[in-house]
Amino acid sequence: MSGTVFRSGAERSYPLPHAGPDAWFTELLVTSVAAVLIAYGYPHLDASTDRAALESALGAFLYNPLESHA
Predict the structure, then answer these.
(1) Cβ contacts of residue 59 below 8 Å, gap of 6+?
(2) What are φ and ψ of residue 16, in 5° steps?
(3) Which residues of the chain register pLDDT less than 70?
(4) Burial per residue of 6-28, b for 16 or more beta-carbon CB atoms within 10 angstroms, e otherwise
(5) What sign results for the dihedral spanned by CA atoms 6, 11, 14, 20?
(6) Distances from the Cα of 11 to the Cα of 4, 17, 20, angstroms
(7) Of the candidates 68, 50, 65, 69, which has an alpha carbon nearest to the alpha carbon of residue 15?
(8) Tell me, what's the pLDDT at 9?
(9) How far, in Å, CA of 30 to CA of 26, rounded?
(10) Are 14 and 62 in contact (CB under 8 A)?
């Protein structure tokens, strides 16, 4: 677990530590999430930029950002 705690005292499971490439984070995952959104009445992701934005949002939810070593 990530150890992030909300005011309610419940520990969060996400975001996960980012440990490099993830075999579960695939095109199929993005397509599946898009299908769920469409099933709930949201518009289709027709533009490649929409798909890229969804992939980015999923990554931001799932993983801590890589630490900057600057």
Answers:
(1) 25
(2) -85, 155
(3) 1-9, 66-70
(4) eeeeeeeeeeeeeeeeeeeeeee
(5) positive
(6) 6, 15, 24
(7) 65
(8) 67
(9) 7
(10) yes
Question: Can you spell out the DSSP letters for the chain?
Answer: ----B-TTSPBP--SBP--S--TTS-HHHHHHHHHHHHHTTPPP--SHHHHHHHHHHHHHHHBPPPPP--
CA distance readout (Å), 46 to 34, 49, 53, 63: 11, 9, 12, 26
Confidence at residue 20, expressed as pLDDT on a 0 to 100 scale? 76
- Identify residue 22 by its one-letter amino acid code: D
Q: Which two tokens stand for residue 69?
A: 């070593």
Identity at 4, one-letter amino acid code: T
The owner of tokens 């677990």 is 1
